[in-house]
Design a protein that fits this description.
By secondary structure, this protein is mostly helical. The protein is built from 15 helices and two strands. The chain starts with a helix and ends with a helix.
């Protein structure tokens, strides 16, 4: 199932959302309006709103509450991306200049704050306090996950348990919020919302492991390793597995490459080769598929239909995508 087929059950709703989201970002301040217009023109695949709408449609008919949830999540997600670029000193986002590259850090931070406030006000104005609670909790977890990763990266002492906690908070919590909010917008059953929160969390973990694999060239068209995570001293699952399955001498050598030689292409490639030979790629792939299968198991407890089938297609897409 391709992306066009996945979107089919909510195509009209996604088109309406585009307009509503633009409206939610408007400002009377010309500079803000110019920057938000720039953001909208360079939006990504909008996978998060898609999860919201498809989940909502599994339980009922898309309504204003669903649109509010999708807009809130996209506003807060965009705000975190703008702030992330400042924190990471990154001048590029999706192949275009980042906000801080064009308008400097101070303005970028204020734009991020503005987007956060717009999301909060959107929820309050529409009395969507449960949806606000779900999303605010996700933003808190994202911040905690980022700080936990920074703390552990200094010593490179991330074990597998810590790794899964970091990605659960950093990546999976927002996807979990998308699915929980979608369910909450069309179902009064708290058990449905709880199950979809767990569903989204498992999809998010599988999604992040897939990203880890790209660093080693696994699953790409050209199969060329990027080594970006290694250069940024991020401890990903394939590397953690390799460190746990080599002797002490080799382990020290690999850690030294990550700490001291992460800009040396030759040494980084040596590390990547060791990870592959040790079985790190195979192990990470197995873990990714385990979480994907667990997510689908939850999804299959709900009534079959067009929206559920598309959600299943979206789950498979997240683990089979080529970039």
């Amino acid at each position: 199932m391709d992306v066009k087929q996945i979107k089919a059950p909510v195509r009209t709703e996604m088109e309406t959302f585009e307009w509503k989201f633009k409206e939610s970002m408007k400002s009377s301040t010309p500079l803000l309006d110019k920057i938000t217009h720039y953001i909208i023109k360079r939006k990504g695949k909008q996978m998060r709103p898609l999860f919201v709408f498809l989940t909502a449609k599994v339980f009922g008919k898309v309504n204003e509450s669903t649109y509010t949830a999708a807009s809130l999540i996209e506003l807060l997600h965009t705000a975190t991306l703008v702030h992330d670029d400042v924190v990471d000193d990154s001048f590029e986002r999706r192949g275009f200049f980042s906000i801080n590259a064009l308008w400097r850090n101070k303005i970028a931070v204020l734009v991020g704050d503005y987007l956060l406030s717009k999301g909060l006000m959107l929820s309050v104005d529409n009395n969507e306090f449960e949806i606000l609670r779900i999303v605010t909790n996700a933003v808190r977890e994202m911040s905690e996950g980022e700080l936990l990763q920074i703390e552990k990266a200094r010593k490179l002492d991330i074990n597998e348990d810590v790794y899964f906690e970091v990605i659960r908070q950093k990546t999976a919590s927002l996807l979990a919020a998308c699915c929980a909010c979608g369910a909450a917008s069309t179902s009064d059953n708290k058990e449905d919302v709880k199950k979809m929160l767990l569903f989204g969390e498992k999809v998010g973990i599988a999604f992040q492991i897939k990203d880890d694999l790209f660093d080693y060239g696994a699953g790409q068209n050209i199969g060329k390793p990027t080594g970006i995570d290694i250069k940024e001293r991020k401890m990903t699952l394939p590397l953690i597995y390799a460190l746990n399955n080599v002797d002490k001498k080799k382990k020290k050598e690999l850690i030294r490459i990550v700490k001291k030689h992460n800009e040396d292409t030759k040494k980084v490639n040596q590390l990547i080769q060791t990870v592959i030979e040790t079985g790190g790629i195979d192990y990470a792939t197995q873990q990714m598929n385990k979480y994907k299968d667990e997510a689908l198991e939850i999804l299959h407890t709900f009534e079959d239909g067009e929206a559920r089938q598309s959600l299943e297609g979206l789950v498979n897409y997240t683990t089979q995508r080529l970039k």
